[in-house]
Amino acid sequence: MLDRREFVARLLADRGELLVVTGLGTPTFDVNACGDHPLNFYIWGGMGCTAMVGLGLALARPDRRIAVITGDGDLLMGMGSLATIGAKQPRNLSIVALDNGHYGATGMQASATATGIDLAGTATSCRFRQVLSVSQIDETVDVRKILHSGQGPIFIHAKITANDPPRVIPSRDGQTIKQRFIEASAKHV
Amino acid sequence: MRPDASSGWPDLIYTVLKRNNVSQVGYVPDNGHARLIALCQQDNEITDVVMTTEAEGPGLVLGATLGGKRAALLMQSSGVGNSVNALTILKSCAVPCLLIVTMRGEFDDFNPWQVTMGAMTESTLKACGFLTYRVERAEDVEDIITAGCNMAYGNNLQVAVLLAQRLIKRSKGAH
C-alpha cells in the first residue's frame, strides 16, 4: 500500500509542462500539498466528471500531456467515461486512480472497490493502452516515466492506504482557477 | 453528405457551429440529431465524442475550454435530467457552453414515459443557470443558434437551445 501524499509527491516531482486535473476531495488536497501550480485545475463539484475534463483537454491540446488524478469514488460515478476515453484513444491522456476503497470526504465509508471491483480491469476492458498497478513506493519512478513518455490512454491504478490526511485547500474560485490555467497553458510546446 | 444550407435545419445548425469555430461536439445520439451528428463526424476539424451518458458532457466542455477550444453538446431532453449536477460545473467556472436539445414528450409523442422529463426540461436548465431559447420553426433555426453561440462563446454563458418536438416531427416524422 502507498501513502497517498508520498506517492503523489513523487509522481509529480519535476513535472515540467504536465497539465494536471484533480478530482474533488482528497485527490485535490494531495496535489495541492505538493505546492500550488498554475498548471493544476482543481475540480470542486460535479462528482464523476474528472476523467471527462481530462478527455476534453486532451483532445483540445494534443501537443500537451495531461494527467487526471482522482479517487475511486469519482471514477466509479463516471465509470462510463472510461469507455468514452477508450473509444477516442487519446495518446496524451493518463488517468491516475488513487484507490483506497473508501469515500474519504464523507466519513470513510467503503466503496465498491473495497469488495474487489477492479478499476484496472475496467480500464483494460475499455482499451486503455497501458494499465499499471502500483502498490510499492519504489515503483513510482517507473510509473512517473510512463506518465511523461508513455503512449496513452494510460491508466495508473495506485493502491493507497485508507487514511484521511490533513486537508490542504487550494482556491475554490472556479473562474479564477480556470483563467489561471488557460493563461499558463496557452503556449504550445 | 455535404453540408448544404438548403437541405434543412440540421445543416443550418452545422453551418453556424462552423462559423463560430466550434471544434468539439459531444453527444448521446438522438433521432432528431442524426443528421447533425453525421455532419460533425465527417468534419475533420470537429472532434466528435460519443458519450455513454449525457452527464459526461459538461466535463468534456470544461476540458475543451481549459484547452482553448469551443465545445457544444447535443442531447435529447431526457439527457438534461441525466446531467443535472454535472451541468452546474459550467456556471461555477463560467464555461461557455451551447447545448442543443431535441425535445421529447411535449407534442404528439407516442411514449407517455417521455412526458414527465419533457415537461421539466426547460425549467431544469434554467435552475442550472442556463439561458434557454426555444425553436418552433425551421426558419428561426439560424438566428437562434447564432444568438446562442454569441451569448455562450462571447460572454462565457451557458445557453440551451430547445428544438421543439413539432419542428423535429415536421421535418423527419421522427419519434
Structural description of this entry:
Chain A has 189 residues and is of the alpha/beta class. In chain A, strands 2-1-3-4-8-7 form a 6-stranded parallel β-sheet, sandwiched between helices. Chain A has a two-stranded antiparallel sheet with strand order 5-6. In chain A, strand 1, helix 2 and strand 2 form a beta-alpha-beta unit. The N and C termini of chain A lie far apart (36 Å). Chain B has one domain: Thiamin diphosphate (ThDP)-binding fold, Pyr/PP domains (Rossmann fold, 3-Layer(aba) Sandwich), CATH 3.40.50.970. Chain B is 46% helix and 19% strand. Chain B is built from 8 helices and 6 strands; from the N terminus they run H-E-H-E-H-E-H-H-E-H-E-H-E-H. Chain B is globular and about 40 Å long. Chain B starts with 8 loop residues before the first helix and ends with a helix. Classes of the chains: A alpha/beta (189), B alpha/beta (175). At the A-B interface, helix 3, helix 5 and helix 8 of A face strand 1, strand 2, helix 3 and helix 5 of B.
Can you describe this structure in just a few lines?
Chain A has 189 residues and is of the alpha/beta class. Helix content of chain A is 37%, strand content 19%. Chain A has a single domain (4-185), classed as Thiamin diphosphate (ThDP)-binding fold, Pyr/PP domains (Rossmann fold), CATH 3.40.50.
Mean pLDDT of chain A: 97
Could you spell the SSE succession of chain A in H and E letters? Answer: HEHEHEHHEEEHEHEH
Pair with the biggest interface = A-B, 37 and 33 residues
Structural class of chain B: alpha/beta
CATH H level, superfamily name of chain A: Thiamin diphosphate (ThDP)-binding fold, Pyr/PP domains
Total strand segments of chain B: 6
Strand content of chain B: 15-25%
Can you tell me the CATH superfamily of chain B?
Thiamin diphosphate (ThDP)-binding fold, Pyr/PP domains
CATH class of chain A reads: Alpha Beta
List segments of chain B where confidence is low: pLDDT < 50 over at least 5 consecutive residues: 1-6
How would you name the oligomeric state of the polypeptide chains in this document?
heterodimer
Shape of chain B: globular
Q: What's the CATH topology label of chain A?
A: Rossmann fold
Q: Give the CA-CA distance, first to last residue of chain A.
A: 36 Å
| Average pLDDT reading of chain B | 94
Q: What is the makeup of the main sheet of chain B? A: 6 strands, parallel
Structural class of chain A: alpha/beta
| Order of neighbouring strands in the sheet with most strands of chain A | 2-1-3-4-8-7
Helix content of chain A: 25-40%
